[in-house]
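SAMPLE LOG
Freezer: B-3
Tube label: C17
Construct: single chain, 206 aa
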Amino acid sequence: MKPIEKKIYLASKSPRRRELLRQIGVEFELLMLRNDTPRGPDVTELVLPGEEPIDYVARVSREKAAFAWTMVQTRRLTIRPVLAADTTVTLDGEILGKPAGKAEAEAMLARLSGRTHQVLTSIAVHHQSLVEQLTQVSQVRFATLSAASIRAYCATQEPYDKAGGYGIQGLAALFVEHIDGSHSGIMGLPLYETATLLRKAGIPLA
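STRUCTURE (predicted):
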């Protein structure tokens, strides 16, 4: 009998997603999508005109999974499920991406201070004819932040590779007054939804 394949491909550069997959015992191999090819990025993360945040995050996740699946086929790699994800932060319907520098990071956190924002993470799994996707939305309320706290946080390296300019798994946990949703989803990979999709793709999980 052929053994059950227990490993997946993860189409993500995020170290947090790797940590979360290890937490639930999922073995993976990285498939790195490129941002600097002569023809541009493998998958564009630009927001389309009039695109709603939930449509944006779902589209990017879906396109990442589809491109990675094409890579598996063209490179003749071992056939395994491909998992991709995308996370964005929204406030008042506006997408807050990764800050380009200190001034932008400070401005983002000042906007989030004392308010509730949304963190959207969409995950997509592509395996053979199976294409499945789920989007998880969490409500996150920040305490009122002092200017000194914002400056001190933005003097670290934490804000600059994260949507919304903060990482809940780091020092910014001190800012969070209340969460309604998924802590792992806010980190970048909602584990309940991820396990649901991976089981559909044939990955045995507890």
